[in-house]
Input
Amino acid sequence: MEEMKTIEGIRELKQDYAAYGVADHSVWQILYRRQMKKLPNKASAAFLNGLDLVGFQETCIPDFNEVNKRLEKLTGWRLRGVPGIVDNRTFFEMLRGRFFPASTWLRSMDQLDYLEEPDMFHDVFAHVPLLANQDFSSFLEGLSHIAFRWIENPEAVELLSRIYWYTVEFGLIREKGALKIYGAGILSSNGESDYCLQADLPRHRYDVRQILKTPYIKERYQEEYFIIDSYEELEKSLPLIAEELAGRVSVQSTAR
Output
């Protein structure tokens, strides 16, 4: 059994690595191999470099303890196991403490192409390599601090979710003149990692104000994408995000 405990008020699910069977490691291998057939030409250099930095391998599921040793030395972040999707307060509280919430369960063979709830392949393969990048991880931490100030305000949380969605989950970056993927929702998707780079899709320069006015899509591929020029650009946009949020939401939370 996986051990459940509470750390700093947050329920943690300890990864029981020995409990993963041959079928689990086979699913990881199939998903990893399938994505890595296409991502070397499509993914951001920071993501591809991050795969090596955090020690991911095709042949086996990552051990959170080993990943955390590497990640903490690089940017101060750690993985923390969770039983599933967590509430907004828990999510942003973990991020502002440099803990990334990650599922410890992996999809089955008959779920390779679609899941309603993110599993470990999405949470770990797609998200963790970029946490080895200092500018990106600083943006994520900074966004969580803004979010936590407004955590009791549903309107504010929805607006900030749009920023998170169109960057962390479905963002594109221009590197050496070419469009590359850095959003985890795309990196873990066999279909959308092809779809998002098609020539006839609406794609926009990263624009905080425009993103705040753009609802996102959960049930299907995105209808439009936003492009950054660097991860430093994300981090530098944090003051504007805070300013725009304050101007759009009427009542500020006093959460600490």
Notes: The longest helix spans residues 134-149. The longest strand covers residues 78-82. The CA atoms of residues 169 and 185 lie 5 Å apart. The chain has twelve helices and eight strands.
